[in-house]
Amino acid sequence: MNTYNDFYDAHFQEEALILYNCWDVASAQAIEKAGARALATSSFAIARAWGFDDGEQLPFQQNLWFLEQIRRNTTLPLTIDIEAAYSGSLETLAANVVQFLNLGVQGINFEDRKQDTLWDISEQSERIHTIRKIAKKEVFLNARTDLFFQETHHTFDLVKKALERAKAYKEAGADGIFIPGLTDLDLIQAFAEHSPLPVNIMINDDPNRYTNLKIARLSYGPASFLNAQKQLEKISHPILKGRKNR
Hints:
Elements: H1 4-9, E1 17-19, H2 25-33, E2 39-40, H3 43-49, H4 60-72, E3 78-81, H5 90-101, E4 107-111, E5 113-114, E6 117-118, H6 121-135, E7 140-144, H7 147-150, H8 156-172, E8 176-178, H9 185-194, E9 199-202, E10 217-219, H10 223-240
Parallel strand pairs: 1-10, 2-3, 3-4, 4-7, 7-8, 8-9, 9-10
Antiparallel strand pairs: 5-6
């Protein structure tokens, strides 16, 4: 798989596309060697790897440079997490998205978080439409809603609210809908059965658990980075235990 069309089509197969997210060239190459069909970045992982908090705390130009290195070192389709594109105004949004797309990526994740709240549906739809006009049809625009992070009590009514966003985001030009934070299988199924867009969920367990839920894409988000950290600590601990600095 090495073209945008292949990446797009991967969201409409019987088997979900699995993305084990990377954060630098080394992790991207390891994931590629493991058999990945495509690569996806995690904004959380990239930021934390360089000592920054998530949420666009990593300076924009540094983030752009890190993403460029990953793009240069793989031939796989690459989808990048651009968060809210470091933007408040539509003008800044457009300018920043152009720089992200100039990297030659096949997909972007674009979220509706606005600091401690969410953009309302009409505002976020306009922002998605702005990106769609720039991206034309050569980039898979995965619209992320943080509704299930914003609300701690997940119900079928909340699923309906998320579906309202999915419908509006599709009309604005989104290709997929990403609903991180929702983990209840019954609610995931309810959302997937009524979603007008291919559904992307975030997991950190066996992907086979979601086989019958009509999910198009399974992302591990920051889990891959956190798992790698734990494994490094596990490996290094017996080596370093009891040693004195000299």
